[in-house]
Amino acid sequence: MSTPEQNASAHTAGAAEESRPSLSALLLDPSFWADWASVVGLVGLVVVFGISQPVFLSVANLQALLLAAAILVVLSIGQTFVVATAGIDLSLAAAVMLGAIILGLVDAAGYGIFFACVLAVAATSAVGFLNGVLITAGKIPDFVVTLGTLSGVTGLGLILSGGEPIMVGSTFLLRLASGSFGPFGYPVWVAISAVLVAHIALFHTRFGVHLLATGGQTESARSLGIRTDRVKIAAYTISGFCAGTAALLLVARIGSAEPQINTSLLLNSVAAVVLGGVSLFGGRASILGPAIGALMLTALVNGLTLLSVSAFYQPLAVGAIVVLAALIMRYQK
Amino acid sequence: MSAVNHSPSADAILACEGLSKHFGGIRAFTDVAFQARRGEVTAVIGDNGAGKSTLIRCLVGVHVPDGGQIFFDGRQQPFANPDEARKAGIETVHQNLALIDELTVAQNLFLNREIVRRIGPFALLDRKAMKQQARAMLSRLSINMPSVSQRVRRLSGGQRQAISICRAAGSGAKLVVMDEPTAALGVQETANVEALIRRLREQAVSVILVSHNFDQVRRLSDQIWVMRAGRMVATVRSSETTGNELVALVTGAA
């Protein structure tokens, strides 16, 4: 603390952090690889696929890849906020389905596409809010609550839709899906703005610091007057809001609201968060990491498809990469 | 010496009279009178289970006492919760330190009192200002910290204790309450924390110190209060007592 001798080691560690460590030291540090796993993985995949299938690097394919990644990026951001509080949102993909069905039904009932979109996002945010309230006020583990809402929300979607897909022929959504501004399609811009807003919220607002504090040491945060229950409810509500946004992008992309949940979206959102270096124990998060993680998982599927690998191998590859990333994460300091 | 003074004097920053606290049928302490003078280090000692920690928790609003009066800064002021006490100017250094490992030193020092810049309807953190003020806070108490951007996880026990104390003192607190601040520290780190407590007193911050360590209490404090089996049994000036006398008071052998 105040004598230099006893803190010699802490001193040098701190000095190394303030002045940049040398490149070789950086490359030998396992925690560097853990922090940047998603970037390293993405670059690795791009190189491998680019060499083995040059079409992968074509502008058209890269644009398609980004378009396909947009939904997962938005979902991963929602999942990140929840995981940063040391929770998990298993109801994410079910909320996407519910949002899509509400969007389809309200649009089919003739209330107009904007109202339909607003209502869809409001419904998924309400699901998130409910998750948060049950977890904090009900003192039920996050895993159990979101598993319950996963099932409940899926059932609700089936009841509302009668199990039938609903066609959504809106020109607004068609333009959202196919239009582009500059080099990117609109869905990509949606994802980019989500990343920017989330990054600012997490690292440049009081809410963000309180969120990380809540996830890191809930008791300490509470004893300093942070209302940790409110913070957690907010995190789940944000996750629900992201699910609603993803539902809009999904309906726009496929032109109909399907009453089935896409489980790979849920698993990939957790996978992207892990790849992005976010601690599942809470308190440590980034937004860019999970976004790049989502991009990497999409690139993996895209590349395997281009290499004519059977679709059956894709879940296997995703699983292997996630477990590998988790192994590397153990070296994170 | 053993006659406990029951009227809170004008120079008391925090005082209580006739304070009692029970948990169900278990009596934590009964009819306790206590006062901490402004600008002094006031120690509370006693054996395990004597009621020290519960007394302190009642004084800072963690527990609500069953009976008696609490005076802070001259006014009768029982606190309903720790937040109220903090707003009135009492900062507590918790035994668990209440630090967030994954946040930086500066973030911890400003946790829940972050400095923000308003940009239209949005309030963004002013990280530069917080880092600057964090350095100033640390240097005011001569705490040597390599970088305020360092995560607290990497710090030693003494450094963590220092940050927790610095956070309590740096918020402009009138009174800093510390519960066993050196219980988990080595010899050198204990010396550092003791030096820090002395610097707090030099800067006219009042301190209440709960401790087991009689030598430490005699080194650091101006006034010592002794609890035994739920009662305040004695108060002595630190300069006028001996280790043997304190042992006798705590054990009841006197």
UniProtKB/TrEMBL annotation, chain A:
Keywords: Cell membrane, Membrane, Transmembrane, Transmembrane helix
Subcellular locations according to the entry: Cell membrane
Main location: membrane
One GO cellular component term: plasma membrane
Transmembrane segments: 36-57, 64-88, 108-131, 143-163, 183-203, 233-255, 261-281, 312-331
Keyword Magnesium set for record: no
Keyword Membrane on entry: yes
Topology term for the membrane: Multi-pass membrane protein
Protein name: ABC transporter permease
Species the sequence originates in: Mesorhizobium wenxiniae
Automatic annotation (TrEMBL), chain B:
Domain called ABC transporter: residue spans: 14-254
Tagged with keyword Kinase: no
SMART domains: AAA
GO molecular function: ATP binding; ATP hydrolysis activity
Family annotation (InterPro entries): AAA+_ATPase, ABC_carbohydrate_import_ATPase, ABC_transporter-like_ATP-bd, ABC_transporter-like_CS, P-loop_NTPase
Keywords, alphabetical: ATP-binding, Nucleotide-binding
Top-level taxon of the source organism: Bacteria
Pfam family name, one: ABC_tran
Family: Belongs to the ABC transporter superfamily.
Protein name as it appears in the record: ABC transporter ATP-binding protein
Gene source species: Mesorhizobium wenxiniae
